[in-house]
Amino acid sequence: MKIFKFSAIRPVSGFEKSIASLPYDVMDTEEARHMADGNRDSFLHVVRSEIDLPDGTDPHSSQVYEAAGRALRKLTDDGRMFREDTPSLYIYRQTMNGRAQTAVVACCRIDDYANGTILRHEKTRKDKEDDRTNHILATNANTGQVFLTYRDQGGIDALVREECRAAPLYDFTADDGVGHTVWKAADPDAIAAAFESVPKAYIADGHHRSAASYRAGMEKRRLAGADFDPDAEYNRFMACLFPASQLKILPYNRCVRDLNGMDAGGFLEAVRGTGAFTVSETDEAASDKPCSCVVIIAGRKWKLEWNVPDGADPVSVLDVSYLQENLLAPVLGIGDPRTDPRIFFVGGIRGTGELVKVTSEGQAAAAFSMYPVSISQMMDIADSGGIMPPKSTWFEPKLRSGLLVHTL
């Protein structure tokens, strides 16, 4: 890994809490509009700029991207954000429910995304890539960080601990109870040198932001032609790099809208008939171990358990893969969970109470409470060149946008 300092645009002290926002992709337009209501500082005016345009505006229209650029400029023009005079690295700590995770915020090379030094484990969709590419080009900035992880390095940990002894730039608790602390590195060159011993990094969250950063950089290279500068900022994108041991993945639960023409009894008999599961009624809504899940139907719960075949590849042993191949597809007829409207997904941050709620209110005929994927599984799959099923990982807490911005 090679990481780079950058001259961040960041909030003027005192504005950090009002500016910082959740990332663009965890809410829809109406939710973003509600969150930003009465707060002219909110970075949602940049990352979800359609909230400042008339109802019904296409969120992928040129007017939206132009509004994002204006909103970012306004934050600096009005003196609520400013650009650092000199490039640096930053340390960003998040604290949630007593658990902390601490990242180095730096720029990474788009070429490392292309050559496999930065590994991915998910497919991307062209429409979402297009959206983020247009947003980067219109704002001339990475307005949100890519969430990267790497296998722990004691030397980096020691340098980060030392940096955290200093007074932070920002230290606040957001309305959702998550704490956010940011330091400017006193010895960024030592940290950058230490990362040269990291062989590769893994995209935990932000596959579309990574792909879009690559595309935006290549577009700027194309426009520059033979005179493109290999050291220009458009060759880099902003990322938070977390040691893997500090991260926690929450389950990504599956909900189906109907039982493929069966009632609950018929469905359970069909599941037993596959020979792939043992089925037992339970009082618990959460899965407590790998190779199991809990299915919730009309207030009742059943635990499904299975054994993974010997010699199975890293993708097929995932609980979400096994459920898809042995139940969702053959029993419920859900062939492609990326496109089938009969399935939807609920992130683990909402808890199992949300699964009980959607089934009791009729939004879903059944909900599958999953056991979370491990960080090591995710990295092993990326190392093997594999692709995880859609909606396999849910990371919390979410990185806040607006605390640090990298311009191209």
Low-confidence segments: none
Mean pLDDT: 96
* N-to-C span: 20 Å
Radius of gyration: 22 Å
Q: So what's the overall shape?
A: globular
Please indicate the percent range of residues in DSSP E strands (runs of 2 or more): 15-25%
The percent of residues in helical segments reads 25-40%
The chain-level structural class is alpha+beta
- Count of DSSP-assigned helices: 13
Largest sheet: 9 strands, mixed
- Can you count the beta strands? 21
Polypeptide structure, described:
This protein is an alpha+beta fold and 408 residues long. It is 31% helix and 24% strand. It has 13 helices and 21 strands. It has helices at 16-19, 29-36, 44-47, 62-77, 110-115, 126-139, 154-163, 188-194, 207-224, 264-273, 319-328, 351-360, 375-383, and strands at residues 3-4, 9-11, 81-83, 90-96, 99-109, 118-119, 141-142, 146-150, 170-173, 179-184, 201-205, 236-243, 249-250, 252-256, 278-282, 292-297, 300-305, 343-347, 366-370, 394-395, 406-407. The strands form five sheets. Strands 1, 4, 5, 6, 8, 9, 10, 11 and 12 form a nine-stranded mixed beta sheet that branches. A six-stranded antiparallel beta sheet has the order 15-17-16-19-14-18, sandwiched between helices. Strand 9 and strand 10 (179-184) form a beta hairpin. Helix 6 packs across helix 9 (207-224). The longest helix is centred in the middle third of the chain and has 18 residues, at 207-224. It is globular.
